[in-house]
UniProtKB/TrEMBL annotation:
Pfam family, one: Rhodanese
Name of the protein in its database record: Rhodanese-related sulfurtransferase
Molecular-function annotations in GO: thiosulfate-cyanide sulfurtransferase activity
Lineage of the organism: Bacteria, Pseudomonadati, Pseudomonadota, Alphaproteobacteria, Rhodobacterales
Keyword Transferase (UniProt): yes
Species of origin: Paracoccus sulfuroxidans
Annotated PROSITE patterns: RHODANESE_3
Rhodanese domain boundaries: 29-125
Keyword Ligase: no
Domain of life: Bacteria
């Protein structure tokens, strides 16, 4: 029988260390950490993002992380801790599990951008492509 999303989230939650928005706010600007926003570009345009975060659309993660991929992004080869976030934390929990399986030191931010914004933490506009 196929697994549903709840089973997949439970499995990921058992394997991935999660951090709170408070912990992440205290670590903004930490050189050993990369915040990775995996939301759709329309979400970023509409709502903004965590200042200094790197945008990596969820649909491209496997390709951007894998150094053998023609789409590899060097940002994922820096040997840092990668903290993934989405709107509420579900997509980022699954993304962090995937990144961990691909060899990255990965975490997921509980509550996602929704909690970040609701608690009054700083928000930046999505950088425009030139």
């Amino acid at each position: 029988m196929a697994r549903g999303y709840k089973e997949m989230l439970d499995e990921a939650d058992a394997q991935v260390q999660s951090v709170t928005t408070e912990e992440m706010a205290a670590r903004l600007g930490d050189d050993g950490l990369v915040m990775v926003d995996i939301r759709d570009p329309r979400e970023l345009e509409r709502e903004g993002m965590v200042p200094g975060a790197f945008h990596a659309p969820r649909g491209m993660l496997e390709f951007w992380i894998d150094p053998e991929s023609p789409y590899h992004k060097p940002r994922f080869a820096e040997g840092k801790t990668y903290v993934f976030y989405c709107a509420s934390g579900w997509r980022s929990l699954l993304a962090a599990k995937l990144a961990q399986e691909m060899g990255l030191e990965a975490r997921s931010m509980r509550g996602g951008f929704k909690d970040w914004h609701a608690s009054g933490k700083p928000v930046a506009e999505m950088p425009r492509k030139s």
